[in-house]
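Hey forum,

I'm writing up a methods section and want to include a predicted complex as supplementary material. The small molecule is S-adenosylmethionine. I've pasted the protein sequence and the SMILES. Can someone with a working setup run it? I'll credit the forum in the acknowledgements.
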Amino acid sequence: MTKSLEQIYNKFAETYDKNRSLFDMTEIFDSFYGTLNHKNGSLLDLGCGAGESFSKLFVDKRWSVTGVDFSEKMVELATKYVPEMTTIHADMRKLVFEPRSFDAISAIYSLFHLPTSDHFALFEHFYRWLTPGGMVLFTYATKEYTGSERFDGEKEFMGQNLYYGHKKPDELYLDLESIGFMVEAADYRTIGGETFLWIICKKH
Ligand SMILES: C[S@@+](CC[C@H](N)C(=O)[O-])C[C@H]1O[C@@H](n2cnc3c(N)ncnc32)[C@H](O)[C@@H]1O
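Reply by user p_vandermeer:
Happy to help. Structure tokens for the complex are below, copy them as they are.
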């Protein structure tokens, strides 16, 4: 039987617990944190996993952090490792928040698991949920990772087939700009042998 992404991440949670803090995200965190106007605002971390490292780094800066993940095992780990954060067990596409609820939104290695047909509506939600001048950081899948300019399909990762979706970078930027975001940074970074685009954008 094919496993759902939630089931796969529930399973990964056990492995994760044994191999914590494999990658140092400090440089990426610093480059994002440096763009923020609010020095102790509110962060929404989508696909927060075990809360490490982004949620934790923001909590350490005294931000109020809400982490969302649809894997209940990941949410359990986040509650254990970052008890200060608020956790929500949900699919990031089904969230409801008041407009202007957050000063920043992150989606680290998570949004790229959604089909591209879901991206635009989610970016519109980001825009609505952010305060004016609010910032977003997310990891976007690339041709270097999937082998295609545009991709919607499964790719093997740690022995499991995981779904990934991405458009061409220029198409992504047009989507973001048509919603009202300014793309402030788009950096290709290779971490652990995997090349992704790291996007920082700002609400006008
Ligand atoms: C590769 S992990 C990254 C976790 C964390 N952001 C980090 O950097 O360590 C991807 C996470 O996104 C979550 N995820 C994937 N799709 C999701 C969705 N549609 N809604 C909520 N969480 C999702 C998975 O359960 C998993 O915990």
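Some notes you might quote in the supplement: Residues 5-18 form the longest helix (14 residues). Helices lie at 5-18, 26-33, 54-60, 72-81, 119-129, 143-146, 169-179.
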